Amino acid sequence: xxxxxxxxxxxxxxxxxxxxxxxxxxxxxxxxxxxxxxxxxxxxxxxxxxxxxxxxxxxxxxxxxxxxxxxxxxxxxxxxxxxxxxxxxxxxxxxxxxxxxxxxxxxxxxxxxxxxxxxxxxxxxxxxxxxxxxxxxxxxxxxxxxxxxxxxxxxxxxxxxxxxxxxxxxxxxxxxxxxxxxxxxxxxxxxxxxxxxxxxxxxxxxxxxxxxxxxxxxxx
Length: 220
Description:
Layout: H1 4-16, E1 67-95, E2 111-143, E3 149-159, E4 162-172, E5 182-184, E6 188-198, H2 200-204, H3 209-217
Parallel strand pairs: 1-5
Antiparallel strand pairs: 1-2, 2-3, 3-4, 4-6
């Protein structure tokens, strides 16, 4: 094993690399502003039609590449409870009466009885409560034909040896954007909100691949 130092070094480098968790949000998660088609040739004036905005309009996201704030306030609560109970009792009895003048006297006085009982009592209960609050700035990556905005964005926060990933994408109606260029996550259609992390702490909570293999193939 002359190459074992190189193997140890390679393992250390792989362990030092931060694994980015997969995502389901709309891609790409950012976009550069596209050139304005209504731009006119320079005429020597300060006013440029391609980049100007009126003095009295709010600075709200409107074009591809614009940014806006989304206040994440998601609270979900669900519970279910079921109860099933069933029972069944059966009883059978038979007896051989006195036999006179007929064959089969050895069975005289014999009795037969049988009882059966079946019961079922099942209960189930499940509850889930989730709270997710925070803020994130997203970028308009597409303007739909009806004027709605497809937005997507990501925020990475590194704390110590771990990295937190906050991602969001969805469809925003411009009429719901307030004057501060902010909208609540409750008004985002087709919202995909993720909070994931990578690092030593998250890896310690994941079962090893060999253990998962045996867990999937063992019948007991």
